[in-house]
């Protein structure tokens, strides 16, 4: 094996032949093919640094090895090929110019004399041979005569190695219609001047032709290189790569070009052995359909790899639901928002074909407003079916309208680029991870006389049995920019809302989700994947229902189990959904009962310790139901059990669930307020209960505290006391 060492004349060169055994002695440098070292070559050998050659010259070029002795054995290193480039010669030219005007001659009548000033130039030149880094600095040229002194200066930057810096491209993927022309731009800064500029397509270098025009412009060390593709054809779809090199550095930049064209049948063969072969080309990718009029069936060559979970029902005939095709829903272009008014931030969630990105929107509601939003988009790997699904999701959100307890649509970008769906940004992330982060500060206030501050941290080893963080979307911005499985409790609380979690908060989340689901039901919409991972929290602990299917990789999420040819959230599904593939309002109610179990166990997985296998399916068929979660009031467990009725028509509607939890909120607020006055040992009428839940008849969810109330928390042993200031 031969290693290459590159250096410049006059610099030191390091040959890293480090000894792997400290017992090696008599280290020396030798030419690979024997003989003496070049005249004037001086070096220093060490076990730690290898060989360092000083003041390298062009004559030192060649192949070298390091040798030594280990005990009685003669040992040697790999071969090193030393390449010495001549040092750069830098020339500074300083020209001093001055003018001398002779005495004006006399002028006779009827004559005219033309005169020019006589210029004097003196030039001084500074040569620096083999420029090194230590020669960097400011150089000044100064001229002086009887009229005075004048000077000019110049700054010299010396780099150890040349460089090429590419300006990042914002458009690495380009879509263009067949017959249109396209220009691909590359901007870069380089020193020394690159000796190689090339464009290639599918591994073949492109030359200047009438179809591919390459132009280069430069100013000092900046370069702009343009490849113009004229009247693109379908066959010219692919990856175009730019490459540049100047000897010291090399760079490349690629562009994926998709030429949009209508489908074209390339070949059609058969039938042979009962099979028909049909080959077509075109972009975007499409499904090839084979129609059989005899059996009136339709088979598609490709199945969508992602579909929106939310379904809008057109009609109900007995047990059969007729769904509206979301692609047929209208889209109001008043939702359109300018792309150039979005500034993208970090990725909040990512799946196989899509992702959700935090962004800043300028002028979303008014011309001068700035708003943080979440933007759902597709990845370049997405298929045409995923693009159709994202557009369907946009249409469904537009159809539903706004509600406080769903993630509302704010705008969209559907023209001039890939589809972007702009929704509300929920700063506290998904409910599942929020509950898990708040376990350590949970304040248990169950009905009864057991009012106490409970430190769930002591139960951390058992409370999370069966949990999995795999695949959950956490939109909560990171405090440090990194991640930690054991975040600091105080910093987490300060970052989120500064408050602990209590039973009333759990009731509030349950109530809000029921309100949101009641709204969806009123719009004839079923969710099909209701779970804590699909509930987001925002300011004031407002819960919002969403569908993050596109931005979650279900192939790596243990909550989605392979069943048939699909991955399904089996532990959240009703028996009729599992065994009959039936999804209804009532199956959503079953899933809501599982969600309640997640909430009142502070984020534990349902059916803890029970794998999804044949035994699990048998247990569900035989009527097995989970026990009450540890922190669930008895009334809430009764609601869970009613949601898990085997007969779907015996399950309560979401409007009934809302009514039942409203009673819990009202009763609990009165009870807990009185209990706190007692168990905090205070009779001050100004004691305030920090609460994220309002009265049952409130039209919107209340805030955590009134804006006019200043409060502080004082720790008292195992209790918290709240005073009005």
Brief synopsis:
ATP binds at residues 349-356, 376, 424-430, 533. With 725 residues, the protein is an alpha+beta fold.
Please describe what this structure looks like:
This protein has 725 residues and is α+β, with helices and mostly antiparallel strands. Helix content is 17%, strand content 36%. The protein is built from ten helices and 40 strands. Strands 14, 16, 17, 20, 21 and 22 form a six-stranded mixed beta sheet that branches. Strands 1, 3, 6, 7 and 8 form a five-stranded mixed beta sheet that branches. Strands 27-28-29-31-30 form a five-stranded antiparallel beta sheet, covered by helices on one side. Strand 6 (62-70) and strand 7 form a beta hairpin. Helix 5 packs antiparallel against helix 7 (585-600), helix 5 (503-522) runs antiparallel to helix 10 (654-679) and helix 7 (585-600) packs antiparallel against helix 9. The radius of gyration is 37 Å and the shape is elongated. It starts with a strand and ends with a strand. InterPro entries: Ig-like_dom, Ig-like_dom_sf, Ig-like_fold, Ig_sub, Kinase-like_dom_sf, Prot_kinase_dom, Protein_kinase_ATP_BS, RTK. It catalyses: L-tyrosyl-[protein] + ATP = O-phospho-L-tyrosyl-[protein] + ADP + H(+). It holds the Pfam family Ig_3. Residues 342-677 form the Protein kinase domain.
Low-confidence stretches: 291-305, 447-495, 668-725
Mind describing the biggest β-sheet? 6 strands, mixed
Q: Total number of β-strand segments?
A: 40
On the 0 to 100 scale, the average pLDDT is 76
Q: What general form does the structure show?
A: elongated
Total DSSP helices: 10
Radius of gyration: 37 Å
Give the distance, in angstroms, between the N- and C-terminal Cα atoms: 77 Å
């Amino acid at each position: 094996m031969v290693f290459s060492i590159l250096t410049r004349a006059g610099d030191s060169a390091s040959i890293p032949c480090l000894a792997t055994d400290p017992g090696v002695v008599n280290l020396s440098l030798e030419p690979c093919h024997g003989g003496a070292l070049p005249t004037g070559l001086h070096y220093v050998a060490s076990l730690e640094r290898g060989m360092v050659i000083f003041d390298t010259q062009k004559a030192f070029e060649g192949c070298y090895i390091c040798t030594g002795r280990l005990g009685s054995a003669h040992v040697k290193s790999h071969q090193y090929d030393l390449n010495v480039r001549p040092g750069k010669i830098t020339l500074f030219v300083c020209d001093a110019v001055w003018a001398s005007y002779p005495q004006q001659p006399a002028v006779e009548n009827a004559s005219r004399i033309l005169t020019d000033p006589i210029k004097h130039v003196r030039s001084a030149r500074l040569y620096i041979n083999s420029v090194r880094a230590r020669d960097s600095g400011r150089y000044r040229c100064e001229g002086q005569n009887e009229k005075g002194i004048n000077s000019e200066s110049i700054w010299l930057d010396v780099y150890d190695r040349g460089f090429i810096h590419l300006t990042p491209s914002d458009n690495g993927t380009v879509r263009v219609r067949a017959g249109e022309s396209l220009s691909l731009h590359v901007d870069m800064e380089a020193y020394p001047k690159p000796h190689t500029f090339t464009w290639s397509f599918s591994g073949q270098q492109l030359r200047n032709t009438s179809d591919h025009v390459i132009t280069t412009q430069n100013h000092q060390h900046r370069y702009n290189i343009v490849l113009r593709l004229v009247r693109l054809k379908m066959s010219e779809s692919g990856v175009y790569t730019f490459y540049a090199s100047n000897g010291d550095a090399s760079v490349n930049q690629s562009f994926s070009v998709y030429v949009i064209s209508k489908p074209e049948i390339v070949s059609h063969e058969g039938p042979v052995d009962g099979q028909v072969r049909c080959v077509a080309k075109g972009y975007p990718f499409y499904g090839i359909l084979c129609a059989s009029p005899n059996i009136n069936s339709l088979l598609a060559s490709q199945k969508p790899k992602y579909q929106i979970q939310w379904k809008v029902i057109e009609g109900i005939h007995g047990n059969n639901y007729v769904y509206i095709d979301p692609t047929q829903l209208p889209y109001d272009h008043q939702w359109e928002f300018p792309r150039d008014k979005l500034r993208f931030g970090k990725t909040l969630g990512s799946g196989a074909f899509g992702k959700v990105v935090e962004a800043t929107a300028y002028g979303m509601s008014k011309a001068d407003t700035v708003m943080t939003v979440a933007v759902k988009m597709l990845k370049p790997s997405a298929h045409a079916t995923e693009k159709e699904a994202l557009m369907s999701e946009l249409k469904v959100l537009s159809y539903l309208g706004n509600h406080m307890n769903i993630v509302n649509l704010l705008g969209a970008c559907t023209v001039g680029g890939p589809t972007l769906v702009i929704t509300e940004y929920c700063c506290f992330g998904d409910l599942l991870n929020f509950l898990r982060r708040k376990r350590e500060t949970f304040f248990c206030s169950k009905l009864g006389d057991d009012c106490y501050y409970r430190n769930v941290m002591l139960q951390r080893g058992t409370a999370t049995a069966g949990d999995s963080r795999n695949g959950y979307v956490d939109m909560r911005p990171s405090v440090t920019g990194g991640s930690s499985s054991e975040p600091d409790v105080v910093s987490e609380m300060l970052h989120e809302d500064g408050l602990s979690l209590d039973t009333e908060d759990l009731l509030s989340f349950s109530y809000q989700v029921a309100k949101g689901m009641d709204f969806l039901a009123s719009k004839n919409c079923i969710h099909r994947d209701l779970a804590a991972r699909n509930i987001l929290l925002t300011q004031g602990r407002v819960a919002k229902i969403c569908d993050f299917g596109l931005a979650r990789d279900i192939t790596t999420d243990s909550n989605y189990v392979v069943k048939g040819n699909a991955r399904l959230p089996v532990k959240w599904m009703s028996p009729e959904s599992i065994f009959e593939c039936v999804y209804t309002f009532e199956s959503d109610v079953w899933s809501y009962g599982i969600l309640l179990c997640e909430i009142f166990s502070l984020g534990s997985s349902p059916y803890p310790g029970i794998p999804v296998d044949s035994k699990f399916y048998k247990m569900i068929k035989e009527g097995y139901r989970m026990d009450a979660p540890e922190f669930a009031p008895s009334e809430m467990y009764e609601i869970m059990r009613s949601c898990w009725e085997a007969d779907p028509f015996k399950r309560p509607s979401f409007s009934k669930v809302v009514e039942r939890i409203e009673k819990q909120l009202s009763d609990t607020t009165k009870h807990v307020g009185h209990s706190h006055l007692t168990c905090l040992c205070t009779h001050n009428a100004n004691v305030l209960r920090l609460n994220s839940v309002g009265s049952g008849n409130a039209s919107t969810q209340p805030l955590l505290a009134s804006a006019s109330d200043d409060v502080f928390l004082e720790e008292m042993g195992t209790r918290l006391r709240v005073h009005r200031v």
